[in-house]
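[09:14] KT: can someone run the structure on this one? pasting the chain below
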Amino acid sequence: MQIKRAEGIGFCLGVRRAVDIVERVAAERGNVETLGAIVHNQPVLRKLAQKGVSVVKDIADVKGKVVVTSSHGVSPEIAEEIKRRQIEPIDTTCPFVKRAQITAERFAKDGFFTIVYGDAAHPEVKGILGRTGGKGIATTDIESLIKIESLPRRLGILSQTTQIPDSFAEFIKKLLVSPVFKDAELRVVDTICHDIRQRQKNSLELAKECDLVLVVGGHTSANSRHLVELCSTVTPTYLVETADEIRPEWLEGKERIGVTSGASTDQSTINEVVSKLEELA
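[09:31] RB: done, structure tokens below
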């Protein structure tokens, strides 16, 4: 059995930056709290916990005088609440997420209603929508927009940074051809992360060469799930967070196994998955 890794896997730039910041703060100040999971990957969070990093779900649960906000960013309202409680914020927002936030702010300033192509329940999307002054919506379904009565005619459209580029492009195409938006003024900004775009491209190329692909990533990680969605179009693909989740029956009759990873998966977890594959082989 041949095992091949996709190029450019492991931590992305934004996650590497966030993890470096929180590790430094923990080393300098002792135990430190993060508001929500700093990244959506349990093995990484467990390793950070060993270094004194704990996760709180709500600002009211913060016990110390310092809190680290996640790489997904937070809304202005949450940032203001942190300030009101006189807690020092340590911002680890990914630069690409920050770019999307600024784009949403610009839309609102210029009088555009913002449409975020993405998962409305995701922390990143909530933070982006928080920049719209209440004049925005998140969806991946064009039909949900068509059903909105009195939808503004000036629409600013951007994407959650981890979405699939072709899916975003198809969403825009449907907007352009729909009679509902015929007289609307549309402003489109592509805010998909460059790393995610390249990671998806590399993973898809790998999948075309393999009988099976394992995506190593968190079960709550949006970009990991999108990799599974993408690779599944050409070969059987499974998402595993750790090596223990690999099922031997997946490998039966498979000669070429591809391994790729989400943007918040560290190299040690990837190495463990590859070692497990070699052991099962």
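[09:33] KT: thanks! The two ends are 6 Å apart (CA to CA).
[09:34] RB: yep, looked fine to me
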